[in-house]
Amino acid sequence: MTNLERQMKALQKHLKTLKTQANRAQGEARRRMKRIERRTRVEVERAMRRAEPRVRQAVAQAALLSRSLKVGVRAGAAAYRAGRAPKR
């Protein structure tokens, strides 16, 4: 075997080793990504379940305050109109 053939054979062996390592790393990265995605999905779902009742309650309170404010403004305007002198 010539020197060039030996070098080619060594390079091919090294390339095969690198390919095996790359495939293993790729599989590990894929598993890690799936695990991270699953954990993220669970955390988001849990946070939504926890936050939903609070958000509903806040919206209900805001609607109640809005209604109360409108009624107060109407009552104040009516009292103002009722308390002033009649038009001439």
Give helix % range: over 70%
The quaternary structure here is single chain
Q: What does the main sheet amount to?
A: none
Number of distinct beta strands: 0
Tell me, briefly, the overall form. rod-shaped
Strand content: under 5%
Radius of gyration: 37 Å
Question: Explain this structure to me?
Answer:
This protein has 88 residues and is mostly helical. Helix content is 92%, strand content 0%. The protein has one helix and no strands. It has one helix at 3-83. The longest helix has 81 residues, at 3-83. It is rod-shaped, with a radius of gyration of 37 Å. The mean pLDDT is 90.
Sum up the structure in keywords.
88 residues; mainly alpha; 1 helix
Describe the secondary-structure layout.
Layout: H1 3-83
Question: Summarize this, please?
Answer:
The chain has 88 residues and is mainly alpha-helical. The chain is built from 1 helix and no strands.
